[in-house]
C-alpha cells in the first residue's frame, strides 16, 4: 500500500527548477489500483507511512503532489485532516501542492462525492490545501474559480495563500530571473552517471528468494523463471503511464 504524495526537493545551485530527490513513499489501494479507496488507522498512518514524508519535508521539500485515492472514505482532494491538519500544520509543509492528473474532477466522475466539476473544485478549495489543479485538457478550473469567488464560496484569502506558496517557491529558485534551465544541463539528461544510478536502483530493488526444501515446483535445470500477469505485458512493464490508466 502507498500514500501517494510526491515530494520534490530544492534543486542544486546549478539548476533553476525544484526536482524530486528521493523515492516517493505512498499508500496505494489494497487492490493495487491507484484510484481505489484506502482504509487505515491513525496509528498505522502516523507510525508506518508518515516518517519518510516528515524526513523529506525536514530536508527541504518545496513541492508536493496529491493523490487519486480516498482515505477512510474521504477523497484526498477534499480531505482537511490530511491535506491541511497533517501536511500543513503537523508536518509544517509550506511549499506548493499540486493535484494529481485531473484529480479534482474525479470527485465528480469517480468518487461521486461532488455533483459537478464546479462542485468538485469548491470541495477541493474548501477541504484541501491544493494550490495548483493539474487538468491536462481544458481550463474550466479558472472559470469555476471565478464563479465560486463571485458567489462567496471560495474566499480571496484562500487564493492568496496558494499564490503565496507558488510565488515563494519561484523566488527561492530564482525562476523570475532564470525561467528555464540553462542549456548546459541538457547533457545531464541520460548521462553515464544517471544510467549507472538507475541500474543500481534496479539492482537494489531485486528480491532473492531461496527455494528451501523445494517448496516451489521449479525445474532445477532452468536458470530463469518469469511468472505473474505482467511478465508478458510490455505496457505494464514500462509503467502505468505507458498505457491507459488503471
TrEMBL record:
InterPro entries, alphabetized: Cellulose_Degrad_GH3, GH, Glyco_hydro_3_C_sf, Glyco_hydro_3_N, Glyco_hydro_3_N_sf
Keyword Signal in annotation: yes
Pfam family, one: Glyco_hydro_3
UniProt EC number: 3.2.1.21
GO MF term list: beta-glucosidase activity
Keyword Hydrolase: yes
Keyword terms: Glycosidase, Hydrolase, Signal
Substrates-to-products reaction catalysed: Hydrolysis of terminal, non-reducing beta-D-glucosyl residues with release of beta-D-glucose
Domain of life assignment: Eukaryota
Enzyme class, spelled out: hydrolase
GO biological process per UniProt: glucan catabolic process
Glycoside hydrolase family 3 N-terminal domain mapped to chain residues: 30-168
Family: Belongs to the glycosyl hydrolase 3 family.
PANTHER family: LYSOSOMAL BETA GLUCOSIDASE, PERIPLASMIC BETA-GLUCOSIDASE-RELATED
Protein known as: beta-glucosidase
Organism name: Aphanomyces stellatus
